[in-house]
Design goal:
By secondary structure, this protein is of the alpha/beta class. The chain is built from ten helices and 16 strands.
């Protein structure tokens, strides 16, 4: 079976499509139909980030497919499953493979209304966007007159976040550094477009109340500015650091406006929460809009596609057909 393997070298590591005869230890063997290309995958494929923790490693943090063998009672042959994060592509062999053996904890049942391809159109990016929405819901945020801002709105997480928030009735301000994507973002439900430069700056400790909150995929000064502009009892769900990992801010929004900063991670989400998120995604994602923001590409093109992602040239989501 074909698999994209990273192998340790004297300096760094190499990545190549290989024919693999033996799978790693695990609980469940899955015939994979599709994976997806996330920013973290692109870093791993190009060796530009410290994503892979042991070698050799099959890259790919997402997978969707059919169980062919299982040593647990939780899954049986023929079950449709989805796996993402939980160490896949980092410490456990991942989804850029035609067949993979994984731990049962990495998998959840795929909702019956989603196809394999649709599930990977959502992938880790859409799953993370839903976790952000669930975090804002749990805090008690509800649609109102003020907009919620989504930063990095033309990316995978951002695009699906705009769609999900608009579906829930929020007025959504989409922040992007690519003004040519305004029609695309408005089609997803954005009510206004904010140039990246308005937020990507060093803010004052506390600025005028502008937003009810937001979903931030960028971090750095962008998150600090959004935090300083969030209105009383607002909340910001933070899930990315494409703009930097440092956060230079003050406690003022916390103690003077009761603003919440919610950390969101998809890496080790509990199985119950994963199942809830996928159930909601199956019900709340507009399939037509989802299809319009995605393209499906062959695994054989993964290196060039990864460079495209890292260069910021990708809009929306890329699904990977592991059998091409």
């Amino acid at each position: 079976m074909k698999m994209l393997l990273a192998r340790k070298q004297e300096k760094g590591y190499s990545v190549a499509l290989e024919d693999v005869a033996e799978l790693p230890p695990g609980d469940v063997t899955v015939d994979i139909a599709y994976s997806s290309l996330n920013y973290k995958d692109a870093l791993a494929v190009t060796a530009k980030g410290k994503i892979i923790r042991k070698f050799p490693m099959a890259i790919g943090i997402d997978l969707a497919g059919t169980v062919v063998e299982s040593s647990t009672d939780e899954f049986k042959p023929g079950d449709r499953v989805i796996g993402l994060a939980q160490g896949l592509g980092e410490t456990e062999w991942g989804g850029y493979a035609q067949r993979q053996r994984v731990l049962a904890n990495a998998l959840v049942p795929l909702p019956s209304t989603l196809s394999f391809e649709e599930s990977m159109q959502i992938g880790t990016a859409g799953f993370t966007a839903m976790l952000c929405v669930m975090g804002l819901d749990a805090y008690g945020l509800v649609p109102g007159e003020r907009e919620l801002v989504v930063t990095g709105a033309a990316g995978g997480v951002g695009s699906i976040a705009v769609m999900l928030l608009a579906h829930r009735g929020y007025r959504v301000a989409a922040s992007t550094g690519r003004p040519e994507h305004e029609p695309y973002l408005r089609d997803l439900g954005a009510t206004s477009i904010i140039p990246r430069s308005e937020l990507a700056r060093k803010p004052s400790p506390l600025e005028s109340e502008r937003f009810a909150g937001g979903i931030d995929t960028v971090g750095g000064d962008t998150l600090a500015t959004l935090f300083a502009q969030t209105a009383y009892e607002g909340a910001v769900a933070c899930c990315g650091m494409a703009g930097g990992h440092e956060l230079n801010t003050t406690v003022w929004p916390l103690i003077l406006r009761n603003v919440a900063l919610l950390g969101i991670s998809s890496i080790h989400t509990s199985k119950a929460k994963r199942s809830e998120a996928w159930s909601r995604l199956a019900n709340e994602v507009d399939r037509a809009k989802l299809g319009s923001i995605c393209r499906t590409e062959p695994l054989s093109d993964i290196v060039a596609l990864s460079e495209e992602v890292l260069a910021g040239k990708v809009r929306g989501r890329i699904v990977i057909d592991v059998n091409r």
